[in-house]
Amino acid sequence: MTSDLSSSKTVASACPLDCPDHCSLEVTVEDGRVTRVDGSRRQPATAGFICTKVRRFPRRLYGEDRLLHPLVRRGAKGSGDFRPVSWDDALERVAEEIRRVHERWGGEAILPVSYGGSNGYLSQDTTDARLFRRLGARRLARTVCAAATTRAADGLYGRMPGVAYEDYAEARLIVVWGANPSTSGIHLVPFIRAARKRGARLVVVDPRRVPLAAQADLHLAPRPGSDLVLALAVHRWLFEHGAADLDFLARHATGVDELRRRAAPWTVERAAAEAGVEAREIEAFARLYAATSPAVVRCGWGVERNRNGGSAVAAILALPAVAGKFGVRGGGFTLSNSSAWRLDGERPIGTPPPSTPVVNMNRLGRHLVAPDRPIRLLFVYNANPLATLPEQETVRAGLLRDDLFTVVFDQVMTDTARHADVVLPATTFLEHRELSRGYGTMALQQALPAVPPIGQARSNHDVFGELCRRLGLSRPGEPETLDDVARSLLDGDGDGDATARALADEGIAFPPFGRRPVAFVDLRPRTADGKIHLLPEALDREAPEGLYAYRPDPASERFPLALISPATRRTISSTLGELYRQRVAVELHPDDAAVRGIRSGDRVRVWNELGEVRCRARIAGDLRPGVAYLPKGLWSHNTDNGATANALVPADLTDLAGGACFNDARVEIERLG
């Protein structure tokens, strides 16, 4: 749609950033410059409004940290001292170093590091994957988020999509467990409010008194890492009190008896003692859940961020099956709905993964400093590992290695980019074509560029395709253009023609089962036998002590406080962190502050054996005792010493899928003089 003024226009777009909602957008462009980003109503679930993060996105496009030219390091590593060069010079330097490393040490000395800086189908796992697979590069396990949740959902339900946002308005009970939609996934909140106006009850399970918890009928604030025993206690109560739907389970589930056996030790009283909540609260939750239908559980990713994460998610996702909550609109669960689309991402790549070693990204720092079979070339894109991965100081030490050649391909000068040898300027989603889908809402959207690339920024597709050509890795006949890549992806979903037409005509498409499916009416589990597997054998073998086995709190007398790092309204993981320069305080409960002689505003040291963060303190009554809070997504400029919560997070792994254990950081806090 174009406005009356010839110098002004509005462009339809869609947000591909790492958020469940996947908003449709209207972008205002005046004299070739983006001046405003608003929501549109093309995506029904997002209803025309957007978060403040994306509303401020023009500040990233034109901010002082925006990368406008390729850069080559001229100062010491980590100094941020670079000089501009041409694209030809930069790409040839990168290609020459790839050739040198490949010839001397082989492909496994090369490691690409990427994650969710762009969730677009055209910006990741296309020409980039083609390049690194054909080089035989070391493989990256993208496990920093959603690894354990995905494994659990796949094992129990074959990643069956869950309840649509709109159908929360139909629920009579909503359970928000380990999620904070007021910060991440804001478009769920109006549907929760609509349900509440119609009389629905609300239960929130979170160690903080998040905004929805303040409005809830029941708020359970467990110790971080104890969600598993809460869920198992509810299972035991359901079986013991005749509230388990045995007919449904007999028809649709396996592993029922074994789940019941493993839940049996967890009485309400024992779970309450371990989780640090009242037994009466757990029983009240179990009674309410058993008695109410439709009932929906919104399971978030906070649940997985600890040693028991996979088992905890599995136990929570099993609750609707045991209590018989499926088969009605507004009943069941929502985790990730990304599986609503099953596009074949392998098709545009054209090369299977190599058999080279796998690096779990949660242990990137350890791999970067390992003396055996060292990584010689690191290529970072769609990621900011120094700001987002565990054991931050080990990651930093690895990036400072003189014998490591690091390429960072990004939109702005990140903390990681300051440690690079070559920095390449990337386009944002407003400057290139994209095809993307959400993982809360179920739409697939196409977005065309709102403005041409700013400065000399180039897209992922173009740069990785050019590197393939320079290194002689392109092959005749494979998908090369964005049209070819998009069509190849769509053809993998089974109804590519219809989807392509919808995207071309409307810019948006919905799955064949519609945008509001009802489980066990429109959908069935996508397991091999079509049943719910309450105790999948593969998951039971993978978990160190078996699925649903609880591993106790790692707190010690020396480090008694659990440090958590949930998301905020400022950043999307670390994306947009360059826009927020203010120093951030660590929050702690008044009781924990009192015994340490700490008052709000005091300078403090938050520390453990891995490192320390120096910052101010803030006393917060919305935390449970024993828990401290530093936000997710901080950059070095947000603390006094440049370290963030990730400096205190161990590279321990979740019980399933090798996920990150951010909430297993145990620390002490002391006042500085």
First and last CA, distance = 60 Å
Mind telling me the CATH class of the largest domain?
Answer: Alpha Beta
Poorly predicted tracts of residues: 1-5
Beta-strand percentage range: 15-25%
Instruction: Kindly give the count of domains.
Output: 4
Q: Architecture of the largest domain, CATH level 2?
A: 3-Layer(aba) Sandwich
Q: Can you tell me the CATH topology of the largest domain?
A: Rossmann fold
What general form does the structure show? globular
- Main sheet? 6 strands, mixed
Radius of gyration: 25 Å
Q: How do the strands line up in the largest sheet?
A: 5-4-17-16-15-6
Average pLDDT taken over every residue: 96
Give the beta-strand count: 27
Kindly state the percentage of residues in helix.
25-40%
**Structural class per helix/strand content?**
alpha/beta
Q: Given the structure, what is the number of helices? A: 21
